[in-house]
Model the fold of this input.
Amino acid sequence: MKKIAVIAILLAVAATAGAKEGATVRSIALPVVETPLADGEGKLTVMSNCGSCHSLDYLVTQPRLSPAAWTAVVEKMRKVYGAEISDADAVAVASYLASGYGTEKKAAVGEAAGKGPAPKAAAAVSGEASFRKYCNACHAGGGNIVKPALTLHRKDLESNGIRTAGDIVGLLRDPGPGMPKFDEKSVPEAEARAIAEYVLKTFK
Ligand code: HEC
Ligand code: HEC
Done:
């Protein structure tokens, strides 16, 4: 496989060199098979870390995975296959994959633009149920599997200036590194509030 690739490159060099004599050969474009990736924060990190050993098709043809499962895939690439990816990049990659190719936002990528998520009933949203659905993979029991120091317990929240439900909703809309972004489309205002209130009253 490697050999074939090398030969292909050499042929490309020869062809280019023949075409314009004396020109440097630095500008050859390798025949890269482009896999279109969903837009989103971390896309570049994925493109730069995950396409070196196998095609990015490996990512987009996976069944949609939960954030925890994507984190596990990235860890496997690092620990089992020796992918050299910094901690920060690993978090960014898992977060990107969870939001672009995750189980939570089914309409995020490449699906018929018209059929967005069904509008959620404004009626009684249970903060607890939504927390389980969106947050539990990383924050079960109020912890944080990605960044263990940043739990959802009051002391940690307060030391980061997070005091009110509004602060938490703000954080969902604009999270720190490693946490997927929950925008209005995926988690409408009322549901976000209910989750925030559940967090404040549950993890003391
Ligand atoms: C050092 C090489 C290497 C790098 C870099 C790498 N992978 Fe892999 N990846 C592998 C190997 C080896 C396999 C399994 C072999 C196969 O099935 O062809 C694999 C398989 C996969 C699979 C298929 C499912 C599975 O669990 O086997 C996914 C998904 C995947 N990689 C995602 C990623 C992501 C995301 C990144 C970037 C963080 C990445 N890979 C970077 C080597 C790598
Ligand atoms: C894929 C994992 C993941 C998911 C899912 C996730 N988070 Fe987070 N969360 C993180 C990470 C990582 C951080 C730390 C980010 C940083 O460095 O600022 C964090 C930080 C937080 C914080 C601040 C904690 C502190 O001590 O400063 C709150 C509050 C929070 N998340 C709430 C939520 C809620 C509510 C949900 C569900 C709607 C959620 N998170 C879903 C990974 C996740």
In short: Residues 49-50, 52-54, 58-59, 62, 73-74, 76-77, 81-83, 85, 93 surround heme C (ligand 1) (CB under 6 Å). The chain has a mean pLDDT of 77. The two ends are 56 Å apart (CA to CA). The CA atoms of residues 64 and 190 lie 26 Å apart.
